[in-house]
Amino acid sequence: MAPQPTADSHESSSDQSMSDTSLGSAQKQPIQDTNILPATPATPDKATLSLPDNDLEKARQDGHAAPAPAYCALPAARRRFILGIVTVAGLLGPLAGAIYLPALPVLEREFNVGSTALNATVSVFMVTFAFAVSPPPPDAIGLVPPGLSEAPLFWASLADVQGRRPLYIISLAVYIFANILIASLPKNFGALVFLRLVQAFGSAAVVSMGAGTVADITEPKRRATAMSLFLLGPQCGPIIGPVLGGALAGQTSWSRSAISGLVLWLVVIFMLPETLRCRVGNGEIHSNGSWILLPPRLASDLAPEPRRGPKPPKPTLLAYWRLFSYAPIGIVSVNTAILYSTYFAIAVHLPHALEDVYRWSTTAVGAGYLAVGIALVIGSVIGGRVNDWRRARLVKAAPDGHVEPETRLADQAWGVMLCAAGTIMFGWFVDRSVHAAAVLIATFLTGFGMSWVFIATTAFLSECVPQQAAGAFALGNMLRNPGAAIAAVILPPLVSKMGVAWFFTGLGILDAVVVGGAVILLRIRGPYWREQRKAKAQNAKSGG
């Protein structure tokens, strides 16, 4: 944790230098804040609470410098309450995607459709979640891991105009409406596909908006801790979702697993204040009011103009294309998509394997996802710490204390091999009906290896393009979700023709050869591409 700075310039310098270092765990990294109030130190201590205008004027007349306003004027208890709300809200999107998987065999029987058709509903959810997204708010760059670093384009435009509060209210309403219809309408497959699309559209907003809310109410020096707490919600979705979905689908109608979020929506309506700093500044207009917002309104009042922060810049498609055309970004994005597609193919096939081969109940199938879910978390934590530890050793050994970003990629080889090995093992274990414990161990290796690679990739991107890390993360995620959607659709026919063993053997070889080869290519050519990019940027600057 960086020491408390004494000036704005110190804050920016400290935060930027830290953002260029490892994302060992993506949530452990302070970043440079872009939404602070003009001429306001970003990290005031507890004594620097906002003063009324007459007190500020009196201080000026007395010849004393007025203390700077607090970064956030809301009481600590209310800030913690807001953090709790957005943490639970951040759980909904990943939960909605994962809760569906254990029930796939049940849904095939309910709707009388084949696995290819039903997997299309999974693909619809993944594609909608991917292509309705843009990068996270600038004040959350570097703190959100791949898969969570997104805010829907439609919702983002609304947030820029009306703030975060209406975004929460409307998007959660869309999500809940889709859930209720899924649970109550007659069994119609076309309606299921459409409602899964609506469900993804509604749930996609809250994850990144939660990250932005955390940045609104938490000063930079304490933001990493707050962000790590917030990320417990999105990170637990893939673990809790299958267990909950399997339990509900096994004991009652599968549609019961679609109903969630109504209580949270009411809490948001009546108790979540606006936090967007370009509308309410440091939140002083809410600091002395009741926690219950009566009458509840969609949008909040505006703070006085001098107390508002600046609006964040909007991304453009041209900027994305220029970033993607930078070879390391394109290669890393494709690598991410391939590995995630492999993982998702296992996640989609797992319920069929456990139910058809091992005769597990739907409830037990949901519990079977715990192995890969826990592996994702462990791989992220351990992989990040090892990656940071190796880089620290290299920095210490370097005469000038400088190491190239490509050193981050050395750890990827281990993750790629583990992921490939776990994938091949999964296929053959299921094909030969090896004990179910061996199958779950194989899924653990795949999840651990993929997560290990992702954290090294995130760290590499943060150092390779530190000023455009958010765009790089968004590109990677926009490719990997469609990749997962394609994997879900092609899985049943290919498994039918090739057999489960050879299908997953092919995926494992693809991971080892393509992803492993790309890592080697980046290690060799990465420095050249980076210097070439710097030269182009310098020439453009000189020409301008």
From TrEMBL:
InterPro entries named in the record = MFS, MFS_dom, MFS_trans_sf
What ranges does the record list as Polar residues composition bias?
26-37
Transmembrane intervals: 81-101, 113-133, 167-185, 197-217, 229-248, 254-272, 323-346, 366-386, 413-430, 436-461, 473-495, 501-524
Q: Which GO terms describe its cellular component?
A: plasma membrane
**Which species is listed as the source?**
Drechmeria coniospora (Nematophagous fungus)
| Protein name per its UniProtKB record | Major facilitator superfamily (MFS) profile domain-containing protein
* Keyword Membrane in annotation: yes
Q: Which UniProt keywords apply?
A: Membrane, Transmembrane, Transmembrane helix
Subcellular location(s) per record: Membrane
Q: How does it sit in the membrane?
A: Multi-pass membrane protein
Classification lineage: Eukaryota, Fungi, Dikarya, Ascomycota, Pezizomycotina
* Record flagged with keyword Membrane: yes
Biased region (Low complexity) positions are 14-25
- This protein's source sits in the domain of life called Eukaryota
Q: Where is this region: Disordered?
A: 1-51
Molecular functions per Gene Ontology = amine transmembrane transporter activity
Which intervals hold domain Major facilitator superfamily (MFS) profile? 82-523
